[in-house]
TrEMBL record:
<feature type="domain" description="Gingipain propeptide">
    <location>
        <begin position="10"/>
        <end position="127"/>
    </location>
</feature>
<dbReference type="InterPro" id="IPR038490">
    <property type="entry name" value="Gingipain_propep_sf"/>
</dbReference>
<dbReference type="GO" id="GO:0004197">
    <property type="term" value="F:cysteine-type endopeptidase activity"/>
</dbReference>
<dbReference type="InterPro" id="IPR012600">
    <property type="entry name" value="Propeptide_C25"/>
</dbReference>
<dbReference type="Pfam" id="PF08126">
    <property type="entry name" value="Propeptide_C25"/>
</dbReference>
<protein>
    <recommendedName>
        <fullName>Gingipain propeptide domain-containing protein</fullName>
    </recommendedName>
</protein>
Length: 127
């Protein structure tokens, strides 16, 4: 996992990323890493996602940066966004769709297609 410190308005945040993977992008919510894949299946099949976790690892000392609006250069960047309801709550933030999701996308040639998203990290901004 790649970790990069960034300071915004006097607060140090960490941007977490898996090499060559994306992150959650809901503005103001923790920008946690995620793995997204396009999968194919028989057209008559249905799609669901289930994630089984193995060993759990707690990594203290991270304050995950919230996702921001994309910057439209050369214009000034939009104001910093942080969802204070999430960042002030002593609870594990799982993100939209929780830890794993699959959504049927459509048909490509003779295959059904779906987008599978895995979010293996959770974050408690208060702890």
């Amino acid at each position: 996992m790649l970790v990069k410190d960034t300071v915004v308005e006097g607060t140090t945040y960490q941007k977490l990323q898996f090499p060559e993977e994306g992150t959650m992008s809901d503005v103001g919510l923790p920008q946690l890493p995620q793995v997204t894949r396009l999968v194919g299946f028989a057209p008559e099949a249905t799609v669901s996602a289930h994630l089984t976790f193995g060993d759990e690892l707690t990594m203290p000392g991270y304050y995950v940066v919230p996702a921001q609006h994309p910057a439209d250069y050369p214009y000034p960047p939009p104001p910093f966004s942080l969802n204070s309801a999430v960042y002030n709550t002593d609870a594990w933030f799982l993100g939209p769709g929780a830890t794993a999701s699959a959504s049927e996308l459509g048909v490509w040639r003779d295959l059904g297609t779906a987008v599978a998203v895995i979010r293996p990290l959770v974050f408690n901004p208060v702890q």
